[in-house]
Amino acid sequence: MNRLTGKHILITGASRGLGRQLAIDFAREGATAISITARRADDLTEVRDRILEVSPATRMALIAANLANQDDIERIVAATLSEFGGRLDVLVNNASVLGPTPMPFLLDYPLEDFRDVVNINLIAPFLLIKKALPAMIESGGSIINVTSDAGQNGYPGWGAYGISKFGIEGMSETWAAELEESDVRVNWVDPGEMNTKMHRDAEPDEDPSQWADPEDVTEVFVYLASDESKGVSGKRFQAQEENWGLEESEEGDSKNKEQN
Amino acid sequence: MISAPFTFNLPPELSAKEPPERRGIGRDQVRLLVIDRQTGKRTHTRFDRIGEFLQAGDLLVFNSSRTLPAALKGCAAKSAPCIEARLAEHLPDDSWLVLLLCQNGDPFACGLRRGMKINFGGDLTGIVIERDERIPRLWQMRFSKSGAEFVDEVYRLGQPVRYEYVSAPWDLDYYQTVYAQEPGSAEMPSAGRAFTWKLLFDLKRRGIETAYIVLHTGLSSYMDDDLDAQHPASEEEYFIGEAAAAKINRSREQKRRIIAVGTTVVRALESAAIENAEISAGHAYTKLRITENHQLKVVDSLLTGMHEPEASHLDLLTAFLPPEQIREAYEEAVRMKYLWHEFGDLNLVI
Questions:
Q1: Which of B147, B156, B82, B153 is nearest to B119 (CA)?
Q2: Has residue A101 been placed in a domain?
Q3: Per the CB < 8 Å rule, is B173 touching A74?
Q4: Which one of A1, A178, B136, B302 is at 20 to 30 Å from A186 when CA atoms are compared?
Q5: Is residue A34 a part of any domain in this protein?
Q6: What pTM did the predictor assign?
């Protein structure tokens, strides 16, 4: 409890699934302020009500926005920083879209859908980091990008989604390298298979009861948002794997960095 | 009313009409005119070489205010005129001072009056309360939303304040510094526009420190030549955080140079020093006008844009340099075709 006291956090795609659960769990861990974004304002209101049940003192900003629209990204950052007095400690790039369902092969993929998916899943996180970074660069901060197994393996039919996740892993690594001299850390997390609407839409023939619930995978996000992960940057985490999928040497590196 | 220390002829072709990135050069590749305060020596270089004029231990102080899309179009509710409202200053009671410009004909002759309700679209309306006493082209307006909700609506509906010399309606992104944080400026604090993160990291590696304060800028023009010529004193709110205050005080104690990035930073730091021997964290309002007679207490050097003839910023420059040296430098800059305004070239007085 209270591992996130004092933290000001922005989470995209927070109206349902993993994003919603992260907002609730971050509040439970004492986050001072949470800004949540999603397309529909009424969905955000429901999440806010739930957060305030868990933690009535949490300061909230609710921003309805379409991440495919680049003007909305400037608005999200401006409204968040306005509410938070210019402060931001954690950015979670969680929002993503799957694309058309049933999922077509790349050969059949409509260009407009491809662009939409890449805009939301890859361009939007790039712009959000770029615009939010100034608020973190002096005081330090944590950027957490949500990826997927489809960001490391090319599966038939996962088309633009998989490609965008390959992109977000490469982009995260590049950000981490460019920010190495700063106190801003950039990491990316594969939450693993989860029982969310997106996953059910992607694999309608599978039994969702075999998949984890979002509340089962948030611990690694709390760790990365908290000061416990200071000095840990440029790493890929797997929320459902032992040691979060880190090699032993990587764990050692992380600990050494923390001590330094 | 004040008079500027000198005037000069600025040919219209020396207005930067496009951001440097749209002129085929990098953001940090604009020209830089360096003037040595001790010797008066002038050096012409490129901005990305600014590090050659700085030394380890120098402290660069930036204004990290984010530019608002501060121009909002709206129409009065009942068969009354349509106007453009330019946000100028956020008042302590959460209302705003706005410049109201009629959309057709004379910009001030469409029946602007107290009590008008302007509908800006979306969920945003504003009520005209009264005319400002200090700057009569401004009106106090109370909007239907406040705080982050107001900012959200402004970013949905507004456009950046643009002047007639730009060649295209450039997007808001072009009106932001790379380090912009909290929104609130009517116009970009443009002296820092040329910095890139790569350059900032390079400077840090050389031992040059940075600190960020916030002063939300007002409008540079009230679209009224007579009023603009009077340089009416605007009051601006500034914020200095604890980290910035500590860095500034430490630099002062250790007699290291403090370099203000922009006249807004000079104004904020010199105002803060008047109140206290040490710079304290917090926020305050300033009406300070810095002129030739002002004894600089905090700031040693200034990075700034090229200022227009008779602009009040020229007066501020005389706190750093004798007027004659500024005049000579400006005449040389005109001859060498430096570019003026927010997308233009820069001047380091060090």
A1: B82
A2: yes
A3: yes
A4: A1
A5: yes
A6: 0.91
